């Protein structure tokens, strides 16, 4: 197996507007304008009060008094099956949060990669199979995963479906927040306990969609992104002078930035200055995704210099994206041993510096998939094609997710 590397895209300014990396090539600009108009008229998916609540909870994590548990699909899909999965995944995240909270004696904020995770950055603009070259799949908000010219053609009307599907997912999550059916023994009275309401997050990648859903907070007059509570900027679009950072700087939501092993302290200091000039705990999260083989070498200097600058950024570990490997058959996978090793190193680095290891960011599903390898009921290389359904990156299945929650609870509690 070979490691799958990532290289941040180089930006180039176009006119006075910052360059937006990783955007689809929409075939019909008039249709894009029409869709943007439709989205501008839709009600907000999340309220400013909810986003402010998430920010306050993240501020507690940033000051060492809570943890963030972010998780869900790499790429959500449209359709009824995905809605059932969203309910199951929300239940799994709540269970994991309970495990982590009991093991660490800290409140754990569960945040789904859900209700908006429909756009994907890709390493290559096209994909070639058996001599046929087509545009890469960029998430259900852009095109379809099937390998035909019709399915891969970017269709802006999919952004309206992304909005509608997000609204459906949110309905289910809100219902779960009210009754919490998936936490064993949970009753209305137990809601006071370690399980928090679940909120939603996604990568703010598709700027036509995100910009169309920016709303004004009637209480403050501020601008906020109404597409999700917590938005993040990916490793491939985190250029400090790029359009994604400009977008995030212009909204009041809590924002996160993915940070890979090629990041420099100066890049993170510049991002902190642009995204969190007021140094307000809860506003900015750095999600580090270094890879088990690089984290010990790369993370200490980044954390050391950013925290020495006075930035109150929350630090969270994504042990998935630096540990992707491709099998000889071309399937992307990840080993539980690499994932747990990166989490262990993440905690050790923060403990050594005296900063707070503030949580986890995971790709997972409650379904019994065979996409990541290992675990207490191990998935073996020969199992991979038995139930591999991800349209993008390999996810932990239910058992592997719970394994990781128990492992992390133990590590956080003892290190
Ligand atoms: O999360 C998704 C992937 O890491 C990202 O889209 C890159 O995947 P790719 O290398 O298959 O394009
Ligand atoms: C693309 C992703 O991550 P990253 O930007 O860290 O590569 C992702 O979270 O699916
Ligand atoms: Mn992914």
UniProtKB/TrEMBL annotation:
<comment type="similarity">
    <text>Belongs to the class-II DAHP synthase family.</text>
</comment>
<dbReference type="InterPro" id="IPR013785">
    <property type="entry name" value="Aldolase_TIM"/>
</dbReference>
<dbReference type="InterPro" id="IPR002480">
    <property type="entry name" value="DAHP_synth_2"/>
</dbReference>
<comment type="pathway">
    <text>Metabolic intermediate biosynthesis; chorismate biosynthesis; chorismate from D-erythrose 4-phosphate and phosphoenolpyruvate: step 1/7.</text>
</comment>
<dbReference type="GO" id="GO:0003849">
    <property type="term" value="F:3-deoxy-7-phosphoheptulonate synthase activity"/>
</dbReference>
<keyword id="KW-0808">Transferase</keyword>
<keyword id="KW-0057">Aromatic amino acid biosynthesis</keyword>
<keyword id="KW-0028">Amino-acid biosynthesis</keyword>
<protein>
    <recommendedName>
        <fullName>Phospho-2-dehydro-3-deoxyheptonate aldolase</fullName>
        <ecNumber>2.5.1.54</ecNumber>
    </recommendedName>
</protein>
<dbReference type="Pfam" id="PF01474">
    <property type="entry name" value="DAHP_synth_2"/>
</dbReference>
